[in-house]
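Hi W., the nicotinamide-adenine-dinucleotide complex you wanted:
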Amino acid sequence: MTRFEWTTRSCALLAATAAEFDRTQPFAGLSIGAGIHLEPKTATLLLALQRGGAQVIATGNLNTTQPETVDYLQAQGVTVIGHRTTDPVEHDGFLHAVLATRPRLLLDNGGDLFARYLQAPYDGLLGGTEETTSGRARLAPMRELLDRPVLVINDSPIKQFAENRHAVGQSVLESFLRITNRSTNGRRVTVFGYGACGRGVALNFGNAHAQVAVVETDPVLRLEALLDGFAVPDRDDAVAGADVIVAVTGAVHVIRVDDLSRLRDGVILLNAGHLPHEIDATGLAADPRVEAREAGPDGIETLRLQDGRRVHLLTGGHMVNLAGPRPMGNSIESMDLGFTLQARCLEAVAAGTVDARHCVVPVPPAIDAAVAEGFVALANI
Ligand SMILES: NC(=O)c1ccc[n+]([C@@H]2O[C@H](COP(=O)([O-])OP(=O)(O)OC[C@H]3O[C@@H](n4cnc5c(N)ncnc54)[C@H](O)[C@@H]3O)[C@@H](O)[C@H]2O)c1
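Structure:
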């Protein structure tokens, strides 16, 4: 059995949805432009949409495209544009190439496609979906310009608890272990951000016997982290005291150049936020206090400072659970739920059952309810 077959067979709800789409053909005559991590689970989603009659044109997100997935999708008749790149300019070209095909629906992840659509709008775009927290934040100020249904999968309660809270925490811990082969026991781990993802990351490292501290700018969430049992030191102390720092906020330069004076010898930095800007990797590496950069195994980069300290950065500051060696991303079950929400939301936009008032809004509650009922019915747990 290939990884693709394993994944497809494990996505029970999406499989049932695709079987229904075989009959109902909700996307007959429509094209869907997708900009999303290209890995086995997203392949399952794109092929479910194709079974619903869609012509799918897809590109990846920055640095997360898996070549085997590109080959697999192309063999199944999906048009895939581009390849894995860390170059934002090249990636920008791939996104524009998707939009040049004038898709009728967009499946976006990070707001990349909708933001570029507004630079050069074309006739016939019905609307679409946005997957992430970062994408919602980017697209919300553009509501008036977009003026068509854009359903934000991230803001479904199902996505919040199934993926962001439960699955991201598991997969970030799994990625740390896989890439570093270091133990977490007794290690001081600082997690930046106590949103849905951060609380899962903190919980999973805590369950792996690390001493977890949380840095959170929202005072209410900081209190919640404290009551959940995590240390909540001042930011600079949390940086200075950490063996491992995980950024998962969506914000820019959470770890910045002036932290170089605080970081402990041997600290490991990783980002789990959507974009590679949470850790100022470029600024850190260019600082005159860094006398050498050493490339290590599996994308571990070490900055050697003049005073002898070493700072390790995983996956160049790109999303650690999707950009590292043999990346698995979040669990299949969490994505089965999230991607069935995607498929059902695109179906609703195609059918016209949501309108321009549903622009950058959460998944309609009726879709949440149907997806939850469907998953439980098939769960066999
Ligand atoms: N790695 C993955 O598989 C994966 C999956 C889903 C989402 N994400 C990404 O993870 C990021 C976080 O998502 P979320 O759903 O937890 O978002 P969220 O908005 O629920 O939480 C982010 C938290 O970070 C806090 N924050 C912002 N700036 C901060 C700073 N400088 N220091 C400390 N805290 C700060 C905010 O107050 C907020 O509570 C986003 O970029 C999202 O797109 C990643």
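The chain has a mean pLDDT of 96.

W.
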